[in-house]
Write a structure and sequence with these properties.
heterodimer; A: 330 residues; mainly alpha; B: 288 residues; 11 helices; 73% helix; 0% strand
């Protein structure tokens, strides 16, 4: 891994995070009136007494330092965000935004990570098998079905699955992540968690599997035309070894690149899936924040989404040269 | 006139010979017709809230029932489908325009312009669009269809820019382009007369992709309740249905049709862009 590659990726990461912070900083200031007025108006428009509203306004004034020059405000904002000080939630005042996010985060990461790994692995394998000349016929006929599946967005698929498997048949729970708040980890708790996570995970897997299968099929077709594959066959290597070690291994490289790009979509998609299933992760937190106009919570969640995806992309970028030594030369 | 007729004939033959294109176009046409012909038979004003009795199941009077806000749902779908399409097409157009311009500049001129544009494109690609959309839409609040399209387009031009740039890189080295440059034609003329016409299939393919992406992004905003409040759209209908728990109340006529229409729309756009991809990238054609 060369230094310039490393520096370039790090710079990209910093740029993405800076952009997200800057958008968070600028957008509320573009709206007419100062941010405090906007917050107050939102509180009033909800037509309810908010306990300690004086405290909230004071907290905002201090946070924004509204009478200071704009650059100073920006600097302060950057510094606060860098220290993960994202302000206080309005609906759950004085709970801090970052602590609300941290308590919702494990649910989202667990769901998204497991579902993405399954859909990436399953999709890539399916795509490879569809392109492989030696695989059975029924696999090839899967191709159109996968195409249609990849066209349907996460959220719509989640609603369809919710109706079919939870409401109509009643096989799975309507939503939530557990029957009772898990106290300790024993087999029955784990079973309960898995039972609740199944449908949201299924939506993410089904919505993603077609995309990965189609990408892998394309990459496989290119690899299968290469000379080294003919040579491997002429040498009489076992079919399984040619498939995995020669074809799939090389066709996987573009898949890993797409993984970096697809993560952003997957994160956005899973946010909406959580809303459909009332799954208590970041997405559900966001939905509640939107419904109660909890502006700092919305900003915090958005920033966190960007941060998580940017971090994953950075890690993928750093792993990539290990998978494909050719990238070092660039 | 003659060449136009020939063009039409070739495209018709292409559409008929390509089942994906044909199926996609038929689906899309159906959806466009809902918006075009629907208002002739159905009173679209009933899509406004409090214009009919609430929570009615489908009947002879209200073919697709009514919702809890007192809208007739058939009228809502007739009014909403073209709005959703319009938002998508508008956002797609703006996005592709930005993408094609940046891709052309980056690919044709190369050098630092390419480096800067490519760096911005790569960076923007890794940002989850929903995150930025949320912040903007949540603070603007009263968005309309056009604003939504602009916001979405500003976050979705990257795919077009990438595709166009790599296409320009290969076209630039073609002998006829070299010829034109050696003949002393201006860059402007080379780009618009020699390169651009040859990129139309790819630009169109990325346009279709961008429309589909924009509708998807719009749907994301709408189901979170950030869509236009006064214009009926398919996503907002689903949002209201979820908000009034139409799912557990068994009001399938409320959330079922918008989901079906949206699925049809996404499948149609996907089929069309897959067919266009095959034209632009002949390597895919060999593998059925």
């Amino acid at each position: 891994m060369t230094w310039s590659y490393l520096l370039k990726r790090l710079a990209m990461f910093v740029a993405v995070v800076l952009l997200a912070i800057t958008v968070n900083f600028i957008v509320p200031r573009l709206a007419p009136g100062d941010p405090t007025a906007a917050v107050l108006e939102q509180l009033l428009s909800r037509g309810q007494q908010v306990e300690g509203s004086q405290d909230i306004v004071a907290a905002y004034r201090a946070r924004f330092g509204l009478d200071e020059p704009i650059l100073l405000q920006y600097g302060r904002y950057l510094l606060n965000t860098a220290r993960f000080d994202l302000g206080s939630s309005i609906s759950y005042f004085p709970q801090k935004v970052e602590s609300a996010i941290v308590s919702a985060l494990p649910w989202t990461i667990g769901l998204l990570a497991v579902a993405t790994v399954i859909s990436f692995g399953l999709g890539s394998l399916l795509g490879a098998l569809i392109a492989w000349p030696g695989s059975p016929r029924f696999l090839k006929s899967l191709s159109p079905a996968l195409m249609v599946l990849s066209a349907i967005p996460y959220y719509l698929l989640a609603l369809i699955i919710l109706y079919l498997l939870a409401i109509w048949t009643g096989w799975f729970p309507l939503g939530g992540a557990y029957s009772q708040i898990p106290q300790r980890f024993d087999p029955s708790t784990l079973w309960d968690l898995a039972y609740h996570a199944f449908l949201p995970a299924l939506s993410i897997v089904l919505a993603g599997v077609g995309f990965w299968a189609l990408g892998m099929r394309g990459a496989m077709i290119n690899v299968l035309g290469e000379d080294y594959l003919t040579l491997a066959e002429a040498k009489g290597l076992p079919k399984g070894r040619i498939f995995f070690a020669y074809a799939v291994r090389n066709a996987m490289l573009p898949q890993v690149t797409s993984l970096a790009i697809a993560l952003g979509t997957a994160a956005s998609g899973s946010v909406l899936v959580e809303v459909a299933f009332n799954y208590p992760g970041i997405g559900y937190l966001l939905y509640n924040a939107l419904r109660s106009s909890d502006y700092f919570l919305i900003q915090g969640v958005a920033f966190f989404l960007v941060l998580t995806v940017a971090l994953s992309v950075l890690i993928l970028d750093l792993i990539y040269p290990l998978l494909d030594p050719r990238i070092q030369r660039r | 006139m003659n060449s136009l007729a020939r063009h039409l004939a070739t495209s018709t033959r292409f559409v008929i010979a390509n089942p994906k294109m044909l199926a996609g176009l038929i689906l899309l046409l159906l959806l466009v017709l809902i918006g075009l012909l629907g208002p002739l038979f159905i009173d679209v004003r009933l899509a406004e809230p409090i214009s009919v009795r609430t929570n009615q199941a489908p009947s002879a009077e209200h073919l697709l029932g009514t919702d809890s806000g007192g809208r007739e749902l058939l009228a809502v779908f007739v009014a909403a489908t073209p709005q959703t399409l319009r938002m998508g097409v508008l956002a797609g157009l703006i996005g592709v325009l930005i993408g094609v311009t940046l891709g052309l500049v980056a690919g044709y001129f190369g050098g630092w312009a390419d480096r800067v544009i490519s760096a911005i494109t790569d960076t923007m690609l890794t940002i989850p669009p929903l995150a930025i959309l949320l912040v903007v839409a949540a603070s603007v609040r009263a968005v309309n269809i056009e604003m939504m399209a602009i916001i979405i387009a500003s976050l979705s031009w990257m795919f077009a820019a990438r595709v166009i740039r790599s296409q320009v890189l290969t076209l630039r080295e073609q002998s006829y382009v070299q010829m034109a440059r050696l003949s002393g034609f201006s860059n402007f003329r080379v780009i618009f007369r020699e390169i651009l016409p040859n990129m139309l299939p790819i630009a169109f393919a990325s346009f279709v992709g961008a429309v589909s992406g924009a509708i998807l992004a719009g749907l994301g905003l709408e189901v979170l309740g950030l869509g236009p409040q006064n214009t009926p759209t398919l996503g907002m209908t689903i949002y209201w249905a979820l908000l009034y728990s139409a799912f557990s109340r068994g009001m399938w006529w409320w959330w079922g049709p918008p989901i079906i229409i949206l699925v049809m729309l996404f499948v149609a756009l996907f089929l069309i862009s897959a067919a266009l991809d095959e034209v632009a990238n002949p390597r895919l054609r060999t593998s059925k």
